[in-house]
């Protein structure tokens, strides 16, 4: 009997050790699985109520719970939960009474980061209206298209954008779109400053009857995907989707005592929904900055006693490459959550700034599939197992990069990749994992749906991203496919850039693509150009045209002149070889040009310029 007890005791001692060797992530897998299931249950329970308990109700519940708690820290300003609630009620009354908005209407906001972004959103929620978040980098044609595509009746902005607004104001008036400044005074004739009227309005709670028809499927937000440069697409964010995304923080241990910081623009879902809405979901405090500053980032973290930071990969690279300081580890940040961070930057960041927990995630604004790396495995965007795979219903399928299409078998269905093999990520479209699409854009909505994936008649959301899942269940982002690349934290749709640039009188044909740059996240824009017969390349004209026609992140930095542009048998432009060849003048015999910001012109590319870029001496 003593021998038996000894054996049992030995096994009990060995089990944890054996578990660590053979199942090192078992405990984290179980923890995340239970938190994920709890979040899904919470979302379903809240949204199935009649009326549904939407994100607005989450916000109002937090106001009741701790009204005087700081919600927004912005510069020297502090706004409590109660103050944001009261201002949103004041705004709601003006939006409804003075602007004439009614339930179901859409309002475009063209704003920089500020507390107003939140109270305007909550104010519109209180009267059942949709807020369309427009990227304030876009201008003229792109701006008009964004407002038109989401069907906005009103546009809210500030005098910061006076020149931009006055440029499009006549067209907006023709379309019946009212424009207002969120300021006391207005420098533009015919555009009213609303802030004074809002401040003098009643702050009493807005009756629930003003949003009586809101359901889980109602549209809360239109968030414009950054991959659409010239012609933005408005991703429809339903009440259900907003609620689901806002629950991410609760799954990784962020709690009410945390102070969350982001300098990222609120017109993107990462900052608005993951960071700000996630902060409200757990009842925490949110520190907001107008825009990112590498030199002031950690000073802000110390000033606000930040415990959670929200990032994109490019931001982390800037921080890691900024001048070292004696107090680099003097901060209280314990969690970093975001997406797009390369493995080498990840390691460098942790080595320099301390061993905080990094939660890298993957997801698209309009997508129906997402991952989160809850283990801290450097380089991975997520982790999965049998149970999570069943819940997520995604597949990774073989993809022909040159033909820019999925590989199909003799039956016409797609072919799954093996572990360790790169393929296209697709997410099954179901009632639980829907793909709603883009406002007023049925054509582009249909383009994102891939049919007959595993069997005839099924439908999957095409992420447009190549990922790889290894034998241990870790998932890694590899690249974007076809017509999109990522630069400066923004997605760039090459087809839209091509549509804009081909309008120039000396361009006959153009092929836009992204090329990797040493030491930089993502890929930078480059264009192969065939000139019209008898016309010369005009670098100055191209510079001026791109500056006036598209956001800076979408402008190609390199131009390669070609006598002919190769196409596939199905008349698609060939990009893969051009991407491989990059922009090195030592290996390319074609004429090359570089975007010279100092000279405000595209100038001939030299080996010296290439070397300066490779050595990170020349800022891009």
From TrEMBL:
It comes from the Eukaryota. GO terms for molecular function: long-chain fatty acid transmembrane transporter activity; long-chain fatty acid-CoA ligase activity; nucleotide binding. Gene3D superfamilies: 3.30.300.30, N-terminal domain of ligase-like (3.40.50.12780). GO terms for cellular component: endoplasmic reticulum membrane; plasma membrane. SUPFAM superfamilies: Acetyl-CoA synthetase-like (SSF56801). Its EC number is 6.2.1.3. It is a multi-pass membrane protein. Its main location: membrane. GO terms for biological process: bile acid metabolic process; long-chain fatty acid import into cell. It catalyses: a long-chain fatty acid + ATP + CoA = a long-chain fatty acyl-CoA + AMP + diphosphate; tetracosanoate + ATP + CoA = tetracosanoyl-CoA + AMP + diphosphate; a very long-chain fatty acid + ATP + CoA = a very long-chain fatty acyl-CoA + AMP + diphosphate. It is found in: Cell membrane. Pfam families: AMP-binding, AMP-binding_C. The keyword Nucleotide-binding applies. Residues 61-373 form the AMP-dependent synthetase/ligase domain. Residues 496-572 form the AMP-binding enzyme C-terminal domain. The keyword Isomerase does not apply. InterPro entries: AMP-bd_C, AMP-bd_C_sf, AMP-dep_synth/lig_dom, ANL_N_sf. Keywords: Cell membrane, Fatty acid metabolism, Ligase, Lipid metabolism, Lipid transport, Membrane, Nucleotide-binding, Transmembrane, Transmembrane helix, Transport. PANTHER family: LONG-CHAIN FATTY ACID TRANSPORT PROTEIN, LONG-CHAIN FATTY ACID TRANSPORT PROTEIN 2. Belongs to the ATP-dependent AMP-binding enzyme family. This is long-chain-fatty-acid--CoA ligase. The lineage of its organism: Eukaryota, Metazoa, Chordata, Craniata, Vertebrata.
């Amino acid at each position: 009997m003593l021998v038996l007890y000894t054996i049992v005791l030995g096994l009990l001692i060995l089990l944890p050790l054996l578990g660590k060797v053979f199942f090192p992530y078992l405990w984290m897998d179980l923890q995340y699985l239970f938190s994920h299931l709890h979040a899904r249950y919470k979302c379903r329970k809240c949204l199935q109520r009649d009326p549904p308990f939407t994100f607005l109700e989450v916000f109002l519940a937090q106001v009741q719970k701790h009204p005087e708690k700081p919600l927004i820290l912005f510069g020297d300003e502090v706004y409590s939960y109660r103050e944001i609630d009261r201002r949103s009620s004041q705004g709601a009354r003006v939006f409804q009474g003075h602007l004439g908005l009614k339930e179901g209407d859409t309002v475009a906001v063209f704003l920089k980061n500020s507390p107003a972004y939140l109270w305007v959103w909550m104010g519109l929620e209180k009267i059942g209206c949709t807020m369309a978040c427009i990227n304030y980098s876009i201008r003229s044609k792109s701006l008009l298209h964004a407002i038109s595509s989401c069907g906005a009746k009103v546009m809210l902005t500030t005098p910061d954008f006076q020149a931009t607004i006055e440029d499009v104001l006549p067209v907006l008036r023709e379309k019946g779109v009212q424009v207002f400044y969120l300021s006391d005074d207005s420098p533009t004739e015919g555009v009213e400053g609303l802030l004074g009227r809002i401040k003098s309005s009643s702050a009493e709670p807005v009756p629930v009857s003003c949003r009586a028809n809101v359901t889980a499927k109602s549209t809360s937000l239109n968030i414009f995907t950054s991959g659409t440069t010239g012609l933005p697409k408005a991703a429809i964010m339903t009440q259900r989707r907003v609620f689901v995304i806002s629950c991410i923080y609760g799954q990784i241990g962020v709690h009410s005592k945390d102070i969350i910081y982001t300098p990222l623009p609120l017109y993107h879902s990462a900052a608005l929904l993951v960071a700000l809405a996630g902060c409200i979901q757990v009842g925490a405090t949110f520190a907001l900055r107008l825009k990112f500053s590498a030199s002031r980032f950690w000073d802000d973290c110390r000033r606000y006693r930040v415990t959670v930071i929200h990032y994109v990969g490019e931001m982390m690279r800037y921080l890691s490459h900024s001048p070292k300081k004696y107090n680099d580890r003097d901060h209280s940040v314990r969690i970093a959550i975001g997406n797009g961070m390369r493995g080498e930057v990840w390691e460098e960041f942790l080595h320099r700034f301390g061993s905080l927990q990094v939660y890298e995630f993957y997801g698209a604004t309009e997508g129906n599939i997402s991952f989160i790396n809850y283990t801290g495995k450097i380089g991975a965007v997520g982790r999965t197992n049998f149970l999570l795979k069943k819940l997520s219903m995604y597949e990774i399928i073989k993809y022909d990069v040159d033909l820019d299409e999925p590989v199909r078998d003799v039956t016409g269905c797609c072919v799954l990749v093996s572990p360790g093999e790169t393929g296209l990520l697709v997410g099954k479209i179901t009632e639980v994992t829907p793909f709603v699409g883009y406002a007023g854009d049925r054509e582009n909505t249909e383009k994102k749906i891939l049919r007959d994936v595993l069997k005839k008649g099924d439908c999957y959301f095409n992420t447009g991203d190549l990922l790889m899942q290894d034998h241990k269940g870790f998932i890694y982002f590899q690249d974007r496919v076809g017509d999109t690349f990522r630069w400066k934290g923004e997605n760039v749709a090459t087809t839209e850039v091509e549509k804009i640039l081909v309008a120039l009188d000396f361009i006959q044909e153009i092929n836009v693509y992204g090329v990797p740059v040493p030491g930089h996240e993502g890929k930078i824009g480059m264009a192969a150009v065939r000139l019209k017969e008898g016309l010369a390349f005009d670098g100055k004209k191209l510079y001026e045209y791109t500056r006036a026609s598209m956001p800076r992140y979408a402008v190609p930095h390199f131009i390669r002149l070609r006598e002919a542009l190769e196409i596939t048998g199905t008349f698609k432009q060939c990009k893969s070889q051009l991407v491989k060849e990059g922009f090195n003048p030592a290996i390319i015999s074609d004429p090359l040009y570089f975007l010279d910001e100092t000279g405000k012109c595209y100038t001939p590319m030299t080996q010296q310029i290439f070397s300066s870029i490779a050595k990170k001496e020349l800022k891009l």
